[in-house]
Amino acid sequence: MKILVCISKAPDTTTKIAFTDNNTKFAADAVQWIINPYDEWYALVRAIELKEKDASAVIHLVTVGEADAEPVIRKALALGGDEAIRINASSQDSYYIASQIAEVAKQGAYDLILTGKETIDYNGSCIGGMVAELLNLPYVSLATKLLLNGSNAVITREIEGGEEVCDVALPVLVSCQKGMAEARIPNMRGIMAARTRPLKVVEPVAADNLTSIVSFELPPAKAGVKLVPADNPAELVRLLHEEAKVF
């Protein structure tokens, strides 16, 4: 069993977001980078759980990023990845990123490819579907459970008003969300081993960037709170009619 887990770096959720160059670029200075939580907590940890049940399983990690992404992927190796591949490119275009991952996946002949359902910075939720299409693989999104049954995967995913259970022949690509696994913390043994585990750097293949970022914009600052005395309901009614906004 060969498993490929797609890893992306993302700003820590406590990071103060700012933009530069007339709001066209993300200000990366002094940002604490982490593994995208959906990739780490659900996709990677579920792969580790599968390996714990099958000692012959191998977990490869892949990320698209420049050298500053290596600390993040080393942490993923510390959690339980066997080796990692960094595609030496920088892009925010989903198609470009998916094309790079698909090329690595083609060469690796993986039985199972796992992604997080989305990244917490761009929230695009489209890399998994694009990679599956480029590889001509079945794709199951928003998965909350994944079990292997011989050469098939039994996958539970959320749908409107309930759950859907899919029985899919391997190979398959699955995007993972809450419920798939429980978050883990790297132990000292894993951290030490990660220093010597293979991290291969490959150059990107030719692929188009189909989108470009025109500008970023922060959400408007929260307005102050208006307090209405309990003995003045008429004022509350007036404010609700004249000033309250429905979003």
Structure keywords:
alpha/beta; Rossmann fold; 9-stranded mixed β-sheet; 28% helix
Helical element count?
A: 6
Q: Helical proportion?
A: 25-40%
In total, how many beta strands?
Answer: 13
Overall shape: it is globular
Strand order of the largest sheet: 11-10-9-12-8-1-6-7-13
The profile of the biggest β sheet is: 9 strands, mixed
Q: Would you list the SSEs in sequence order as H and E?
A: EEEEEHEHEHEHEEEEHEH
Radius of gyration computed on alpha carbons: 22 Å
Level-1 CATH class name: Alpha Beta
Task: Describe the oligomeric state of these chains in a short phrase.
Answer: single chain
- CATH topology name, in short, is Rossmann fold
Number of domains: 1
Span between N and C termini? 48 Å
| Alpha-beta content class | alpha/beta
Average pLDDT score: 91
CATH architecture: 3-Layer(aba) Sandwich
Low-confidence stretches: none
CATH superfamily: HUPs
Beta content: 25-35%
Task: Spell out the blueprint of helices and strands.
Elements: E1 2-6, E2 9-11, E3 19-20, E4 25-26, E5 33-35, H1 37-53, E6 58-64, H2 70-79, E7 83-87, H3 94-108, E8 112-116, H4 127-135, E9 139-149, E10 152-159, E11 162-169, E12 172-176, H5 188-194, E13 199-202, H6 233-242
Parallel strand pairs: 1-6, 1-8, 6-7, 7-13, 8-12, 9-12
Antiparallel strand pairs: 2-5, 3-4, 9-10, 10-11
